[in-house]
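Give me C-alpha cells for this 114-residue protein.
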Amino acid sequence: MKTRSLNFLHASQIKPEITGEGISRQILGYDGQIMMVKVHFKKGAVGYIHEHFHSQTTYVASGKFEVSINGEKQILEAGDGFYIEPDAPHGAICLEDGILIDVFSPMRMDFLKI
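Here you go.
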C-alpha cells in the first residue's frame, strides 16, 4: 500500500492540529519521499529544540522568527528560508505572529494519524 495524500488539498478544509501552545499545523501534501506542512505560530510560541532523521527546508511565509540550528541563531522574516540537515538540533521562537512552510524528506510518518 502506497502512503500519499490527495492531489489537491485546500487549507480551508483541513482542521489545524494543535502541536503546542500557540502552534498548529496543517499537512498540505505528501508521499513516502516528501511532505509539506504549514505551521502557524502565535507571537511568543516556542518550537523547542529537537532533532529528527529527516532533511528539512523551511520557508518563512510570514512573521519573524529566531531560528536555532546546531547552536547558531539568526532572525528570519517573511521571504527567508533555512535548511536543516538530518539529526541537527533545531528550534524556533516566534517574534511576530507567523507561518512557516516546512518540507521534509522523507515524509514525517509520525505526523500522520494512521
